[in-house]
Specification:
Blueprint: H1 3-16, E1 26-34, E2 42-51, E3 56-62, E4 66-76, E5 82-86, E6 91-93, E7 98-101, E8 107-113, E9 122-129, E10 133-140
Antiparallel strand pairs: 1-2, 2-7, 2-8, 3-6, 3-9, 4-5, 4-8, 9-10
Bound molecules: copper (II) ion (CU).
Copper (II) ion binds near residues 72, 84, 107 and 109.
Length: about 170
């Protein structure tokens, strides 16, 4: 191997390192996607981000399954009505901690679904982290999943996925 080739190989391995499985400090657990009805034009993705490294930030997401993927959270307005809000700064992923995207709380909003979400389908999703960069996963569609119910909002927000569609 010439020096030039060796140098090129070394440079390549340096760039390849962050993508190596097992090296990443960010892990995505238990993702699922859902929409309220087969004709819904929007949906949402829920998951858990596990981080065994330094603090990071989830700042964006993209998927071919929707025209736009946005980071949303729920917030109660002055009248006690839960509303979804686009969180432009993203969500903090604490050091050696976890970030939960769950029903009634933070989520990846899918706006303008490019096809209906069918039970058994898989949706590719790329999450963008400030430090870790892009993390791509496959998200199973699970229309039957019930909210975990420990958030105290179990009785509300079940029709989440339709909240953006005012077109009917
Ligand atoms: Cu939303």
């Amino acid at each position: 191997m010439s020096f030039r080739t060796l140098a090129a190989a070394l440079a390549l391995s340096v760039f390849a390192l962050p993508a190596l499985a097992g090296e990443a400090s960010i892990k995505i657990m238990d993702p699922y996607a859902r929409a309220s009805t087969p004709s819904s034009t929007s949906g949402a993705i829920f998951l858990k981000v596990m981080n065994d490294g330094a603090a990071d930030r989830l700042i964006g997401a993209s998927t071919p399954a929707a025209n736009m993927a946005m980071l949303h959270t729920h917030e109660e307005d002055a009248n006690g009505v839960m509303k979804m809000i686009h969180v432009e700064d993203g969500f903090e992923v604490p050091a050696d901690g976890a970030l939960l995207l769950e029903r009634g709380g933070n989520h990846v909003m899918l706006i303008g679904l490019t096809g209906s979400l069918q039970q058994g389908d898989t949706v590719p999703l790329t999450l963008i982290f400030e430090q870790a960069g892009e993390v791509s996963i496959d998200v199973p569609v699970d229309l039957k999943r019930k909210p975990d119910g420990h958030s105290g909002h179990g009785g509300h927000g079940n029709d989440h996925g339709d909240a953006h569609s005012s077109d009917s």
